[in-house]
Each structure stands twice: as structure tokens, then as C-alpha cells.
């Protein structure tokens, strides 16, 4: 048996064995992991400094970007403290398992319960930021899944020690030792992607190419967190002040986030009213504008000329399919709401799109017609986030349409099973039903949890 | 653009356009499809007779099984009538879309709604039975998805006319003409499996090899309905009469169904009490028994000898991983409930497994410890079925653990989106929140549907 197969098999066994351990023990494990991290803080941050030194050499040699290096840094601002607080926050969230979502009496003394349960073994692959190993391990443990984690090689020293602390915390609980395992190499990932018998879900967190590469190389389901090509549409009924506020926040609050806006669509009727005010505010905020001919000429013909007008330039077709992740915005004018909906459906990544409109009718049509995980009215696309939605934390933001869509909280890491119990004196068989026999009752049972 | 790409693109456009058509129109389309089927009954059944004649030649030549030929037959018993009734039944089911499952006020005048919606474009591939084209088209239309259907080549003439009737019915509604399309060739399927930009979910209904082949050849999510390796465990606390009734029904009610039982596990303490009674009943019912040494010797040492004792034979390791789909049952003895749970988790297809037990503790441990879509107590595995569960109808039975598990009803064909609305006078932006700013409220909103 290969090493990858041993890892996968022991993860499956750990998952199966954990199903008979009370869920309170998962909370217990999280508290011990919190303590182990605290206890080993100095050692972990020292390893992180080594990772940073190695990364600085790569940056100096032009082989690594400065932004990647920054993401490695674990001892910056409140990053360490919030990572630790996150473990306790997840521990305190409501248990997502054991919840009954459907319950029927099929016959006298025959009760059916659909009850939430963990998915099984998760393979989680992420890049750069080492604190993700702790966040994701906490979510997996809380939801009752076992996990195999693979971080980026740049943060190897840090994640090894974080994993050691996780293992130390787990060993203080009655959960199996192999409940959370860490792997180091891409070769191991490749081998694991073939083991659909043991691994139930792959969660890649990183670039679009990482997600697609994994989707192309496994038949295990993939919950992808890929790119965010979000847009704001300024409807003919748009209020100018809301348009300025929403567009500016959507673009400039945190340009490298996936829920930042990359495209603004202007209704043609606004070219010489709302658009110049919005455009001027964007230029003042140093946003580079890639405009189609009508929106560009509306800006260049303004008098007095807006500041930073040199930041406005003609767009190309590629502008509207590019995730800029920077202070750059693609702009175009369209003649109608239906045209805007069609454009967004064809060009967006189905992440989050917003309409600025006073018309309720337009808002309603936009929210239904735009096929994205989030459809917003007069609100910044930046609201698309698990914490802001009230989930406490998030696994990521899914642009898929199966299982979980949009910001994914703990609910995205569970599925359900059906428990059926016969309580009569004879046991239940289907041959008693049908032509000439019994009929199914299908009456509702009120139950928050399974009574056996 | 290839023909497959045109089909996929027009399915996507049809789906997107349909999002602004009221859901009542989907019900209207189903009623027209019902009429069109009725109107064209003679022509359709005549085409079905041609398919049957062609199939008979294949059967006579030994190139097709008799059971496959039987599945082609549309004018047998109440098959035609129940197919038609099914269309009306699906039309009358509650609308699975537009249902709010999470609603929060994030701030004064900022409302978030998570609302169920269709997945998008479904590619559905099935074998043999022509009525499936009508069942599945009805489910797709009712849930608001557009669909591309591919039937087995054996039923080509029949499914072509069924598809024509579906198109005729659709044309009487305001839904797009390309809402449901049918394709004929495997080459088209191969091309479509590459078009993840347009197709959102593949649903193969058929053999395990069909499902695996598709999973290996696409990065589109697959909702697989593969094999059913179900088992019944006779606990040491089992009641003998329940054991006989449940095992017999699970094995003999419909042996070729995926929810039939293939393996019986006997607690060692029952080898000379409950097992001989169950074994005798199975042999009387002409069930071939593939037994391990202890369960076989318990039968052969009986006096008087049971009837049909020659049907009992030694098992091999392969017996316990085989879906017999016939009056054949694999049997083994194990020393404990934990051993039985481990055996089932390692050998079953995670479909449906049953414990026969009087002990509540044993039943509870079994239901939690066995990692299958259905875990049953004193009830036949044959109950694992969408109609019996009360879903009205089913898309199939999923042995996956993502999105939908077990019998899949209309709920399995929907996902959700998040609609966020700002109703204050300024529009909402995230930069107003956080350090020194506003705090998120996250108060519950009571709403069954989205109020805009």
C-alpha cells in the first residue's frame, strides 16, 4: 500500500470511528488545539520567520511576488490572535450535525428521519497563507469530518508546526489521532486524487488554475473557490448618490478580494447624468477605467475635465472577462435591463452582481434574471462574505451550483442520511403495501433531533 | 461552433431566459405535454413496437438480454398510463423554487434572503427504459432547469417520438423551445461532457460502469446513481420473527432493484437460534445462499435438514462485494456489533443497511456508525425509495455524499442564491462597518418567500 493510500485509508477509518463519539468531544478537541497553539507560539512564530527569510530571497531574486510574501506573515497585526480566537469561535458555533430536516410517519410505527451528518473525508489544498490550516482544521473538526491538509510549500515550516499543535490538541481528546493529517508534496496530492474510495470531497482554496487543474484530475467531487468577476449595473432608475457610494465601495474597499467589482454597466440613459458623477469619483480615487466608446467619450467631453482623466482608456473585449484584482475597472454602456442581465450572465463568474435602482420592478427582475450566487440591490458586492452573512466563519466562497453556493459556512461541510425505525411488534416490509394492502401515511413528525 | 456546442449554448440561453417566466408556466407546460402524449399515443406505441421487434432480433442472436428487452416495452400493464399520470403528479407537486431557507437583517434596511432556485442546465443520460425520458423531463421542467436528454440506442424510435411530444407541449407554453432537447449519439455526449461552461450537472441513470465512465471524463459535477450493495445485520438482540420477515422482504420482494439486500450478517450468538430459522425460510423461498464456514455448517448440521439445502454453498471473498441482483444472498457471521459496522462500512456501497434488533442502544449505534444514505431498524431495505419516503417521485437514488444523498426528489434539482436588498436612503457599503463603525445585526427575518 502506498503512503498516500495509507493516509487516505486511515483518514476514512478515523472518520468512521468518530461517528460513535459524542459531538461534544469535537468541541473539547478544539479547546485543546487552542491551548496547544498558545503553548507553542514562540516556536511556531520562529518557524514562520524562517519561512519569511526564505521567501525574501525568492522575492529578491524575482521568483516570488511581494504580495505572496505578505500573506505568509503570521505575526503581523492581529493575525495570530484572530487565528486563535477563530478556533474558539468555531467551537462555540451551533453543532451543524444531528439536525432533522425531514421527518414523516410512513405507517403506524414506521418513522423516517432525515438528519444532517458529516460528509466524510475532506482533502483540502490551499496556497500561501499558513493560518488557513488552522481555520480549516477547526471547521472540519467542528462539522465531524476528518481532513487531509496540504499547504503551499512557501509556508512549509510554519504549517508543519501548526499541524503538530493540532495533533497535540487532538491527542487530548478521544478523537482518533489521524482525524486531521497533513501532507507535504504535490506527488501525494496526485495520488490522493485517485482514491475516490476513501476521499469524499476535495476543497481547493486558491487560484482559478489550481481549481481547474484539480477538477481535471479527479472524479472526487470538488467544491471550487475560484475567481470572482463581479459587476455593478446602474439602472435607468438609479439614484446618483447610491451609485457613487456602491460603486466606490465595491471597487476600492479591498481590490484584491474576489467579491470586489471588476465591471460597471451603465444604462445608456445615464451617460450624461449619473455616469459622469460616478466616473469622476472613481478617477478621484485613482481607479483606472477601461471604457467602451460611449462611456469614455462621456468622460472626455466633461467640462471642467475630471481629475486623473489620463486613467481613463479604451477597453478591449478581454477587459470584460478579466479579474483585475487591482484599482482597475471595466466600463460599458448598454441600452436596457435585459441587455445588462444577458451581458452579466455571459461574462460574470456567477459570484455576486449588483443593481443600483430605485425601481422595485427592475430590482426584482435583476435578482431573478442574473444567474449568480449573490444578486444585490443598492448594496456593495463586498457584502458577499460568510462573516457578513452571519455564518460566523466561512470555508470559502463557492461559484459552483451543487451542494453549496456563495459563502460556505459549516452547513457546506455536512450532508444528511435517512434513519428509518420500525417500532411495531412485527418489523416492517414493503410487500405489505400496494394493491390490496396498506397505504403509505406520510404524516409529518415534529422533531428537532432523532429520538433514538 | 460544433453541433454539441450549439445544443449546450441554446440550453443555457433557454435556462437563463426562463428565469423571468413565472413558475406557473412550468405547470402549464407539463399539462400540455400530458395532452400531446395522449394525442400521439398510437404513433408512439407503434414506434415502440418497431424498437421491440429490432430488440427481439438482438435477443434471438444472443446480443441482448431478455430483461433489457422487457424494459423497452412501453405498452405493458399500466406502464403507459402511469407514465402519463406521473406528468400530472409532478405538475401538482409543490414548487421547489422560490423557498427562503435563511433570512437575516444585516443592518437597518439591509435584508439578506437565501432562496431556492434551479441549478441550470442538466445533462441526463439513461439506458433502456424509454419512459424515463418523460419522467425526467417532467422533473426538470417542474424544478425550472433546462435539460439535454440522451436515451439508450435500443429505444431510439420511441424516445424520438416522446421527445417530439414534449417539444409540442412546450411550444404551447411561453417557455423556450430549447428548454428540453434530445440527443442521439455517444459522440454528442462526449462533446457535451467537455462543455462545463454551459452544463451544470450530469445525471447518469444506469449501470455502475456508465456512472464511473462519465465521472472519469468530465469536470462537470455528476450526480451518480450507481450500485446498491445493501445488507441486513441480525444483532444479538434480534427478534426471530422480525428477522425472517425483514430479511425475506429485503431479498425477495424485487431482487433486481438497487435497494434489495445482497448480504446478511449474523451475530455469532445467533448461529444456532435465529439464523437457522432465517436460513430455512430463505431456502424455502429458493434463495441461493453463499455462506462462510460457521453459517454454512449451522445449516448443514440441522435436523431435519432444511428444504433446498443444495442452494447453500461456500462463499468467496468476492461474494461480499458482489451486487447479485438475483435470488442470491451472501451470508457471514461476526462476533460483535462494532465488527458488523466496520464490515458494512468497508464492503457496502453506502446505499441502505438495516439492523434487526430489540436493543435501542444497538439500533442507535448502528444508525450512527454505519456510513450509508439509509440506516434502518427492523425495516426492509426496500423502503429506500422516493415514493415511499413521500417525495411523490424520484430522480434516482444517489450514493454520493454531495448535494443530495439517498432517494432524490425535486429538492435534489435545486440549489439556492442569496438576494440582498438595501432599502435605506443611501445604499449600503461595507466600509461603514468594522473598527469604529457599524456592527452587523444578524437578526432573523421571518419570510417564506422573497418580498421583492
UniProtKB/TrEMBL annotation, chains A, B:
A Pfam family this protein belongs to? Aldedh
The enzyme's main class, written as a single word, is oxidoreductase
Q: Which SUPFAM superfamilies match?
A: ALDH-like
**Pathway(s):** Amino-acid biosynthesis; L-proline biosynthesis; L-glutamate 5-semialdehyde from L-glutamate: step 2/2
Enzyme Commission (EC) number: 1.2.1.41
Q: Name one GO molecular function term.
A: glutamate-5-semialdehyde dehydrogenase activity
Q: Does the keyword field hold Translocase?
A: no
Superkingdom, natural source:
Eukaryota
Q: Which reaction does it catalyse?
A: L-glutamate 5-semialdehyde + phosphate + NADP(+) = L-glutamyl 5-phosphate + NADPH + H(+)
Q: Which UniProt keywords apply?
A: Amino-acid biosynthesis, NADP, Oxidoreductase, Proline biosynthesis
Keyword field contains Cell inner membrane: no
Family membership noted in the UniProt record: Belongs to the gamma-glutamyl phosphate reductase family.
The protein's job, in short, is:
Catalyzes the NADPH dependent reduction of L-gamma-glutamyl 5-phosphate into L-glutamate 5-semialdehyde and phosphate. The product spontaneously undergoes cyclization to form 1-pyrroline-5-carboxylate.
Q: Which PANTHER family match?
A: DELTA-1-PYRROLINE-5-CARBOXYLATE SYNTHASE, GLUTAMATE SEMIALDEHYDE DEHYDROGENASE
Protein name from the UniProt record: glutamate-5-semialdehyde dehydrogenase
Amino acid at each position: 500500500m502506498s503512503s498516500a493510500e495509507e493516509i487516505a485509508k486511515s483518514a476514512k477509518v478515523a472518520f468512521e470511528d468518530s461517528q460513535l463519539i459524542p459531538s461534544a468531544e469535537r468541541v473539547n478537541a478544539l479547546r485543546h488545539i487552542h491551548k496547544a497553539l498558545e503553548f507553542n507560539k514562540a516556536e511556531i512564530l520562529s518557524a514562520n520567520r524562517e519561512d519569511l527569510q526564505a521567501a525574501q530571497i525568492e522575492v529578491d531574486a524575482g521568483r516570488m511576488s511581494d504580495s505572496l510574501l505578505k500573506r505568509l506573515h503570521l505575526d503581523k497585526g492581529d493575525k495570530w490572535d484572530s487565528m486563535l480566537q477563530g478556533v474558539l469561535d468555531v467551537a462555540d458555533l451551533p453543532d451543524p450535525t444531528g439536525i432533522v430536516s425531514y421527518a414523516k410517519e410512513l405507517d403506524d410505527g414506521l418513522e423516517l428521519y432525515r438528519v444532517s451528518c458529516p460528509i466524510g473525508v475532506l482533502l483540502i489544498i490551499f496556497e500561501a497563507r499558513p493560518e488557513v490550516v488552522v481555520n480549516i482544521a477547526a471547521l472540519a473538526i467542528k462539522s465531524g469530518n476528518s481532513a487531509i491538509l496540504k499547504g503551499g510549500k512557501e509556508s512549509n515550516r510554519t504549517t508543519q508546526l501548526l499541524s503538530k499543535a493540532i495533533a497535540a490538541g487532538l491527542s487530548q481528546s478521544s478523537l482518533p489521532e489521524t482525524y486531521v493529517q497533513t501532507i507535504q508534496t504535490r506527488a501525494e496530492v496526485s495520488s490522493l486524487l485517485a482514491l475516490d474510495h476513501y476521499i469524499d470531497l476535495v476543497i481547493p482554496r486558491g487560484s482559478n488554475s489550481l481549481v481547474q487543474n484539480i477538477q481535471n484530475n479527479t472524479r472526487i467531487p470538488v467544491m471550487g473557490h475560484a475567481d470572482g468577476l463581479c459587476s455593478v449595473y446602474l439602472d435607468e432608475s438609479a439614484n446618483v448618490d447610491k451609485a457613487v457610494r456602491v460603486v466606490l465601495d465595491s471597487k476600492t474597499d479591498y481590490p484584491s478580494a474576489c467579491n470586489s467589482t471588476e465591471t460597471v454597466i451603465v444604462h445608456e440613459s445615464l451617460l450624461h447624468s449619473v455616469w459622469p458623477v460616478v466616473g469622476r469619483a472613481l478617477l478621484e480615487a485613482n481607479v483606472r477605467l477601461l471604457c467602451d466608446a460611449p462611456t469614455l467619450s462621456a468622460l472626455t467631453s466633461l467640462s471642467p475635465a475630471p481629475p486623473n482623466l489620463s486613467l481613463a482608456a479604451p477597453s478591449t473585449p478581454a477587459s470584460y472577462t478579466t479579474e483585475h484584482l487591482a484599482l482597475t475597472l471595466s466600463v460599458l454602456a448598454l441600452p436596457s435591463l435585459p441587455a445588462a442581465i444577458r451581458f452579466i450572465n455571459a461574462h460574470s463568474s456567477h459570484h455576486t452582481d449588483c443593481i443600483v435602482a430605485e425601481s422595485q420592478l427592475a430590482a426584482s427582475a435583476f435578482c431573478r434574471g442574473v444567474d449568480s450566487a449573490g444578486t444585490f440591490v443598492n448594496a456593495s458586492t463586498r457584502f458577499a462574505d460568510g462573516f457578513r452573512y452571519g455564518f460566523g466563519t466561512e470555508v470559502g466562497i463557492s461559484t459552483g451550483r451543487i451542494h453549496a453556493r456563495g459563502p460556505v459556512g459549516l452547513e457546506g461541510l455536512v450532508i444528511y442520511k435517512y434513519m428509518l425505525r420500525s417500532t411495531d411488534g412485527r418489523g416492517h416490509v414493503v410487500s405489505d403495501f400496494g394493491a390490496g394492502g396498506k397505504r403509505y401515511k406520510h404524516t409529518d413528525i415534529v422533531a428537532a433531533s432523532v429520538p433514538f
